[in-house]
């Protein structure tokens, strides 16, 4: 029978060697009855497909249109790729559990989820900060923009983001690997999360908590401070523009990014506050869904609906696809068939 951590005595009251390393966890997710499972499965499957399809469209638009080969859209394409990976870290396993009526995830699977979750969430944070810096340079130093935001610097910024996120993930997961857990523990979420695993450990977690919160301040707070600094300079520069049209044009280039940043950090803060206030509650799982599923799904809509360049690139891409037609149905692409027909 599965248990929560409160059902067990503290680990330090047990004899050495009596604690066991669990081979699996139970992901409670949402506690809906069986009659609601198909509805929840369909809802999450739809959101996942929309997320993947929407972000793939952004990738196709940026890669297929040479007019979008600029630093801003280079970073946007990277963000779309990361959002696909971020959602794919947790949602497919959740859908599989819904389909098989199973809530089990192995210890190795849980560690893997935590590892990739930290990598891609860290990349999201870093890329949002880089995009804020890009907007800062474009608005505050427009004449030097192409010199400052060179292709080499853009690639270097993305590379540093990857290295930072991977190293952070390796640090956190290696700290979790030293912990011991009771068997049959329940995780009150639809995926494995770092703080939940630390809370469920039966060994001393002081060092884990110290590293986790210090890293959260460093990896999460550092880029956030960079975003605030960039936008403070942007607002100061916009106030110096005399014409209302010029102010609107300058601010419109930041509106989509500012919306994504607000959505990302607000939902992330909601996850933290709900987990701290009511551990294991339905509200905590709902906040986690907003952070891991809804935010990546909305990003393509935010960037495409307000962005004429993206909408134009998508229209040109779809027109080109329609004009060429389905390749498999065009006889000229099958010389062998033409020869046999003649």
Automatic annotation (TrEMBL):
It is found in: Cell membrane; Membrane. One of its GO terms (cellular component) is plasma membrane. It is a multi-pass membrane protein. Gene3D superfamilies: Rhodopsin 7-helix transmembrane proteins (1.20.1070.10). The keyword Protease does not apply. Residues 54-303 form the G-protein coupled receptors family 1 profile domain. The chain crosses the membrane at residues 39-61, 73-92, 104-133, 153-171, 210-229, 250-273, 285-305. Its main location: membrane. InterPro entries: GPCR_Rhodpsn, GPCR_Rhodpsn_7TM, Olfact_rcpt. Keywords: Cell membrane, G-protein coupled receptor, Membrane, Olfaction, Receptor, Sensory transduction, Transducer, Transmembrane, Transmembrane helix. GO terms for molecular function: G protein-coupled receptor activity; olfactory receptor activity. It holds the Pfam family 7tm_4. It comes from the Eukaryota. Putative odorant or sperm cell receptor. Belongs to the G-protein coupled receptor 1 family. This is Olfactory receptor. It comes from Lynx canadensis (Canada lynx). The gene is LOC115527775.
